[in-house]
Automatic annotation (TrEMBL):
Transmembrane regions listed in the UniProt entry: 12-28, 69-92, 113-140
Keyword Transmembrane: yes
Annotated protein name in UniProt: Uncharacterized protein
Keyword Membrane: yes
Keywords assigned by UniProt, alphabetized: Membrane, Transmembrane, Transmembrane helix
Length: 176
């Protein structure tokens, strides 16, 4: 379900490759932050860093150069949405099959061909966030000693939920 003159296999493979890279970056970034937090808590006998801080949702040190764990998935979604006009433009090239597509009895065929792979990529990115966020939280709870946990971890996460995907933190919403 792609425009003529484009390869659906190539588009699908590129989207899959980008998703794998975003997944690997997210896991790597979280593992590095968790390791650093556990080492700091063990060395100084203080409480563990908040989960929201580990994934980059709230932090005074977060900036564009230190993006949150899920920031690459935001870029995947933006790239997939950018693919929609590119697919639509493909109908205007060459033999201009846009005229044929507009005459088809099924008027949604053009939309299906332009939207199929980009929307599937967006859905996969959102599914990946839905899978990774509880997995990361479970790993955090499992590896952090009980006496090092701070109360209200989920409240802090939900209060800063929008910052999971954007590389700019809001220090005024931080908890100490």
């Amino acid at each position: 379900m792609v425009p003529p003159g484009t390869s659906g296999e190539l588009q699908g493979l590129l989207c899959l490759l980008v998703m794998i890279c975003a997944f690997l970056y997210s896991v790597w970034k979280y593992a590095a932050a968790l390791t650093h937090g556990l080492e700091t808590a063990a060395r100084s006998l203080h409480r563990m860093t908040d989960f929201a801080d580990l994934i980059g949702a709230q932090s005074d040190s977060a900036s564009f150069w230190t993006p949150p764990v899920f920031f690459p998935l935001t870029l995947v979604v933006l790239a997939a949405l950018l693919l929609i006009p590119c697919n639509y433009y493909a109908f205007w090239r060459g033999a201009k099959s846009i005229y044929l597509m507009r005459r088809l009895p099924d008027r949604w065929e053009l939309a299906r061909r332009c939207l199929a792979i980009p929307l599937l990529t967006v859905a996969c990115a959102l599914l990946l966030v839905v899978i990774l966020l509880p997995a990361f939280y479970g790993i955090y709870l499992h590896l952090t000693p009980e006496d090092a946990l701070r109360p209200g971890q989920l409240d802090k996460l939900w209060d800063n939920f929008a910052n999971l995907f954007l590389p700019f933190a809001r220090p005024e919403r931080m908890y100490y």
